[in-house]
Protein 1
Amino acid sequence: MRISHLLAAAACAAIAGGALAQKSASEAIDEYRAMLADGNPAELFEAKGEALWKQKRGPKNASLQACDLGKGPGVVKGAFVELPRWFADVGNVQDLETRLVTCMERLQGFNAAEIGETPFGRGEMANVTALATWVAAESKGLQFDLPQAHAQEKTFYEAGKRIFFMRGGTHDFSCASCHGEDGKRIRLQDLPNLTKNPGDGVGFAAWPAYRVSNGQMWSMQLRLNDCYRQQRFPFPEFGSDALTALSTYLGVNAKGAKSVAPALKR
């Protein structure tokens, strides 16, 4: 009886093992993310960002509730999925983080240049990431629809496209080297094709995101900086037109995709 039981158990294990082996690496990673999703630490950054939005701070002791993110002063819902966009008051195209810093300077009296020089995760830059996380969360489930009516919005899209395909650095590497065609992956990670709409919650539609591997909240600008690191390029300055152009290109390509930001990443 014992031998028969052991043989039966071994057979069941073999069947289960075969079923697991049939799963792709991406499916296994998706299951891992799903298990962690209910406790996504990004929720802590969301709560911090909402509090910062309403709190009176800075030399002017004011809140950010009059900040115009593109849909009118104080309107947050739906703003994230339409950024970057042209802002007439600054005469330029801005992404979410850059726009938040503009509001922090104009409404609260912070020094935008000083914030831009602060490393990610520290000081007011950490607050910018928290604010961006909350603003993004307010548009979760909405479809990306970046405006392209203004001439500068179109220019930024074309500039971002050129940057995306520009090869350089010690490895003759570009953004397109990883994200320019279907069916690529690195290690166990499938790489989305960002030259088109890669699908809901993929690529641009997933950031800001919490990185489990290092326990940090990453904004979109920090994510793009990491791509520059892999190209062996110097990091662009915070709020640079290069980063905004890349985000414009990726965001326009993601038209129709539903945002899941803030997401959970490995």
Protein 2
Amino acid sequence: MKVLITGGLGYLGRNICYAMVDNGIEAVVLDRIENANDLSLDGCTFYKADFANTEQMNAILDAHPDIDIVIHNAMVSAIAKSVEHPYEFYHENVVNTMEFFHTLKNRNLKKIIYASTAMLYDSVPGFLVTERSPIKPRSPFGRSKYITEMILRDFCDAYDMQVIALRYFNPIGADYKGRVELPHKAGSNILEKLVKILNYEERIFTLYGTDWETRDGTCIRDFIHVSDLANANALAALHFDEAFANAGKQYSNYLSLNIGSGNDVTVKEFIIAFENVTGEKIPTVAGPRRKGDIAGSYANLSLAKRAIGWEPQFRVEDAIIDVLNYYDNKR
């Protein structure tokens, strides 16, 4: 099996590439970041290219006519940034992505795994969401992913395509095998911020809202180890054809799957877990709620298990340990 992976040198993309290699899947990888030619992905074929550039894409597809599945992982993310810069998010995540899918359709590539997000769900009582839970994205990032899911549904109906949309919850951690990867974007998630405080690069952690209707007033999150998320992509590729039948007769060409840990953890509880692993106390301060946030959600995983045989293997503590080991090995 051969897959094409966009955004393959980013945090998620690089781990997805590792998972493909681990599962014996041949990966053709592209990314447009400036220093792409200085980087390598062992076991993969890499191109510095932009998925939105039709000429570049056609050249890559000409060179690899045996690609079976496309994993579209390239995106711009971050909720707060999307509120401040909605044009960038809609243009990249919707407009450019739609043109990319159009190119794939014209090349008769009809099997797509799409990196979506749990940020499109509305708040629900108890916070546990299934793939049929109400949709109400609160930020341009979430809305851009939901709009693209709707476009893909229409493409499936009109052009005889098939799509598995993986709705990621909150990825954290580092490759569990300790392979070298790109540095995490500084402060890009809760775990990175806590590591910066641990290393005296920052002084205090801000709790964005302490009055949410949760058990301790802080947001509920579903933190998933990035290696589990990456493995979900590999299993979606390996079991693509049977996934729709496994999911149920109502799923013929479009299937969305929750990819999370299945555990609800508040922000305060995550900090406590970090303190227990490190033996260090994290100073915190209460701050205002961020635009685009909701009280929280966590994933019901039964459909993902049934469709592609996937379930997470790692705990929150494992993700914390793997990130700490990653930074220790960089020193």
Protein 3
Amino acid sequence: MSKELCLLRHGKSDRDLAVDDFDRPLKKRGKIAVQRMGEWMLQQHLIPDYLVSSPAKRAITTASITHKALSVEGLDIKQDRRMYQEGLESIKSVLADCPISAARVLLVGHNPDLEDLLIYLVGASRLPETNKLLPTSSLVRLKMPEDWSNLEAGCAQLLSITYAKSLLDEEV
């Protein structure tokens, strides 16, 4: 059985507040987009076995809303500081620490780290050409090798990128 990695970028955050970047909350529209993405994941049966989130407020809120929408018993949200602005190698080490038994892992985090991971795993030439590869609340699905700890450049296959705006009603 092949492994699958899902990358979920946090929802739209409120940049106007005078708070530390780490403590920036989601905007209402960000919460709605993340809720819709979580519901869509449930409809598509994209239920993770293992969920890791950045501990930053906007990411952990995104993970919590998604977790609730998926309504999976026994699935905990692991918070990992390496998911917050620590770069590609740190996120690869988060993946290396995932249990070998996890068939589908969901990482909730930030750009540029998630985009860097996506480009590393798939290869820039095998990704769609766009101004913004991973806007807020977007979900990437990747077919992965069996071993989370041995991830070479270009080892993954892009299955899909789903943008929250494609799931939202017009009034949002």
Protein 4
Amino acid sequence: MDLFTHVLVAYLVTFGIVGFQPSYLAAGALAGGLPDADALFFPIARRFPILRHHGITHSLTGVTIVAVVGAIVAPMLAPGSPYIYFLVMEVGGCAHILQDGFTNFAVPPLLPFSNKPLHLDADRAINFLTMAISIASFYLLLGVERNHVPFAWYLLTVYGLMAFFGAYFAIRLAGRYVVGRRMKDGGYSAVVPTGNPLNWVMLSEENLGGRVRTRWARYAFGRGIVDGPYTVEAPIEPPPHAGAPHSAEEALDWSYGLARRKSEVIESTYHFGEAFVSAAGEWSAVWYSLEFTAFGRASAVRVRFPPGGESPVLKTAFYRPTHPAF
């Protein structure tokens, strides 16, 4: 989840606990965003891995430490009960953990005692729908409505947002449950959520003697499989070759290892590839991530093979796949 949605959901949860009490609302919302402050630890995270992104700050231990500090410091800044400050900041931080665990990125809620991840795969790590709604909501609540409209209008907005996010998370969870059952029936091993809560990608990935085979299909909630299945296979290490490829199979085989080396995204996420030939006879292969996608495009590496047999030309960008998987 993005930072705006973390803060907004924590604000809404805090409102559900204490009502309209601005100091507590601010503390709960702040706690909802603070776990992502681990980005500031990037320079030392390699030396101390526990400080990595989605590390100790995304655990109950980290959240509780922040809540204890907040319970001590917050009453000095704005009058209030330290116990309530602790409660709203603990809940705000836990809401952040749950939202991240809800996505296709895992968090370790029991760190440092256990590395066991919370990983539901029910939403994208960054969903532009919820981000847009969260940004618009803050503008509405803190800009348009603040001291400008009757209090009842503010309450209506807050309750409307609560209903929206409650319904959104419920639809995502229901979809994940249904597609998870269908995944097992179809012999797939993983599910990748898309930006659309009604669309999912089911896939399986196998390493067969140094060749990676990926099979995937697009599943629409309530409709079943609407695209695929598709299969692509290529060796992790490019086979010995000379000149330019003469077929899509050769273009994919020769480009896969190069794409993995070029992009950490391709190497570390589920992916698939396509090959094309131009009117001049030049082959290109594009390897797309199935997880880093937005607006119908995917993070990808394009490998172009000059027809004269010169060295391949690699370029990373967001490309639009032929298959409408996203």
